[in-house]
Sequence to fold (279 residues):
Amino acid sequence: MSATDGAICEMRTVASIILMTLLASLGCGPPPPGTEQATRCRPEAPIVEAGDGTMTIAWKVDCPQLISGYNIYISERPLSGDDSQPFNATVYPGDTDPDDGVVRYDAQGLDNGVRYYVSARVVFPDQSLSAPSEEVVAVCGPRGEIELATRYSSEQDGYSFAQNQYVRADDLNNDLYFYSKGGTDYLASAIRLDGFLRNNRFMRLSVNGDLETAKSRLASIDSEPRDDRVAVREGDWVWIVTTEGHHVLVQVRKLTVEDRKGTVVLSFAYWPISGPPIL
Fold:
């Protein structure tokens, strides 16, 4: 190769480097695998609906680029970087209803009462990742519907949220019971029956509607429940803090009372973790 040819080759190499750098700066060239794409493709903070050992995670994302799917992160510690392992074993392609603009993922096999950090990232065809979404904290726990008879009138006059089963009103594990007096219906703590029983505290929330509405109302309250009973009507939400400091939201779905005897149907969501509510 002549000196002239070598100079031409060197000039082409420099030109190629300059061109590649320019393309990369304009977003036209693919980044190396494992690097983060444009922040525009970062998913929004997920919304988590926790259940009994399960979570349904939903998020929105606006990404003009071709993507392969998503990685979902559910960990007892905050996301530490690109070395964090996703909860999904393979790239999640997305749900079956892409037109609603919301991606949903169902996670199974989780532990109740554990503080989980939840986030998502977009996965691109070259296996590079978007920036992670904002992390949210969620706690799994039992959810369900129960029917309580008035105290001492049935085997199902009390309920243990920790055991997720019916107990008698005067059982050591009972969390609440139901009674009617003077035309008013009450949910009450077992300590009212015996000073050695559980000392749960109650607060009626000034809101009706679904669970998300009740959670939003709860998030705006500064003080915790202090009463050992609360008067209720159909549709009311009641916030209960158990003896251990765990949190329960209970809604009165149906009241059937005659001559101070009857039943109350309650839906509940239980977060078996102490400290401030994690909803």
